[in-house]
Amino acid sequence: MSKKNQNIVILTGAGISAESGIQTFRASDGLWHDHRIEDVATPEGFAANPSLVHNFYNERRKQLHDPSVQPNPAHHALARLEREHDGNVLLVTQNVDNLHERAGSKNLIHMHGELNKVRCENSDNAFTWLDNLGTDTVCECCGVSGNLRPHIVWFGEMPFAMDEIQHTLDQCDLFISIGTSGQVYPAAGFAQHAKIQGAKTVELNLDPTMANDTFNESIHGPASVVVPEFVERILSGEH
Ligand code: APR
């Protein structure tokens, strides 16, 4: 039995989806080695060349519909943790893919947005969008073209649901960081926040990260192996 009423917050990054076939950002074959962040992941880049930005996200959205891209055992283990743990489990992901929800996670925040949504810049309404998006796409809510943008948090923009995340970190007993290099704030500060207010902090990542001394325990290995093992330990009451 896992420890009753223990509040768990989990932060995931691109590493958890790497074994599902989705590129990470900062590896030598990562997305930021082939693309300039300024061009495809900033409001200024979008204003300068919206077609380039749409094409970048269209490609990535299309990849989510590839039958070979499926949730891996790490995504499934986190969904199991939410179902079986006798306490609150909040999953905060920096990922814009849909693999956590496809694995069955429900208490989930996409703090950096979602590839499968678009947003109208006039009304601020976000809605599900599975097709390609272009500068001539007509917005469902205002009937005008050129208003839609990917529902992605770009550099220089505020991530979603920060109040809810901060509040849950304040009550957190166990904080787990999975598959993130810890280089992008505010997410990179969550472990320190949780630790200062008394939580145990654990990192699961393929390689050691620079944030190592923020964690009470660091476990290195592929997410598909180390995450299911760690979830088993929580559910057996070890943490
Ligand atoms: N299992 C576990 N960890 C892995 C695996 C794996 N199979 N493969 C890679 N990793 C680790 C890498 O060692 C690296 O530390 O995942 C981490 C991925 O780091 P980044 O590429 O920097 O991705 P992430 O931390 O999610 O980036 C944060 O930056 O560019 C922005 O908005 C974007 O959400 C993204 C944010």
From TrEMBL:
UniProt: NAD(+) binding residues: 13-32, 94-97, 179-181, 205-207, 223
GO cellular component terms, semicolon-separated: cytoplasm
Protein name: NAD-dependent protein deacylase
Gene3D superfamilies: SIR2/SIRT2 'Small Domain, TPP-binding domain
Subcellular location: Cytoplasm
Record carries keyword Protease: no
Organism: Leucothrix pacifica
CDD domains: SIRT5_Af1_CobB
Coiled-coil segments: none
Catalysed reactions, semicolon-separated: N(6)-acetyl-L-lysyl-[protein] + NAD(+) + H2O = 2''-O-acetyl-ADP-D-ribose + nicotinamide + L-lysyl-[protein]; N(6)-succinyl-L-lysyl-[protein] + NAD(+) + H2O = 2''-O-succinyl-ADP-D-ribose + nicotinamide + L-lysyl-[protein]
